[in-house]
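Write out this protein's structure.
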Amino acid sequence: MKLIVAAAFAAILLALGLAGRAMLRDGRRGEPKTNRMVRALAWRVGISVALFVFILLSYKLGWIQPTGLPR
């Protein structure tokens, strides 16, 4: 379970980095802008929503349990 969440966070950060790279590189030297940044951000949002739904579904199916805060 932790591996899946860590992989999703890594994918989110990768998509964010790709969007930043596309933002800095597109449209330089008179080249037309592409949709690479928009696609990367759309992937980031999609992965984030999928991770949220996966965590909620895992809780409902009993795969994960809340531990609460120690007192």
